[in-house]
TrEMBL record:
InterPro entries, per the entry: Bacterial_PTS_Sugar_Transport (IPR050864), PTS_EIIB-like_sf (IPR036095), PTS_EIIB_2 (IPR013011), PTS_EIIB_2/3 (IPR003501), PTS_IIB_fruc (IPR003353)
Gene source species: Scandinavium hiltneri
CDD domains assigned to the protein according to its UniProt record, in alphabetical order: PTS_IIB_fructose
Broadest EC class assigned to this enzyme: transferase
Gene3D superfamilies listed in its UniProt record: 3.40.50.2300
Catalysed reaction, written as an equation: D-fructose(out) + N(pros)-phospho-L-histidyl-[protein] = D-fructose 1-phosphate(in) + L-histidyl-[protein]
The enzyme's E.C. designation: 2.7.1.202
Record-linked PROSITE patterns: PTS_EIIB_TYPE_2
Protein name: protein-N(pi)-phosphohistidine--D-fructose phosphotransferase
Keywords of the record: Kinase, Phosphoprotein, Phosphotransferase system, Sugar transport, Transferase, Transport
A Pfam family assignment: PTS_IIB
């Protein structure tokens, strides 16, 4: 499964990058191809492209602030959670999105 993710926290520093790392590690451990965009104090990094969106089975938005360009995910299977959830409950986040994909 190909899952695109966005991580963003209010200050755009520590939790953004901790969540991005947790999403990558847990996703790969569960056998998924993962791309994580970060939106933080340095701006947007590792931006999700139109090609990524066309390939993606689902999106995880781990954010405690409004993210830029959220409308690009319209019509996709989407899980929204707190930026801390992938850090604390990584497997549960992926189990939830896997369940959503399985249920179509």
């Amino acid at each position: 499964m190909y899952i695109v993710c966005v991580a963003a926290c209010p200050t755009g520093v520590a939790h953004t990058f901790m969540a991005a790392e947790a999403l990558e590690i847990t996703g790969k451990k569960r056998g998924h191809d993962i791309k994580v965009e970060t939106q933080g104090s340095l701006g947007t990094e590792n931006e999700i492209t139109a090609d990524d969106l066309s390939r993606a089975d689902a999106v995880i938005i781990a954010a405690d602030v409004a993210i830029s360009d959220k409308e690009r995910f319209e019509g996709m299977i989407k899980l929204e959670c707190s930026v801390s959830d992938p850090i604390k409950f990584g497997d549960a986040v992926f189990e939830a999105v896997e369940q959503e994909v399985a249920n179509g």
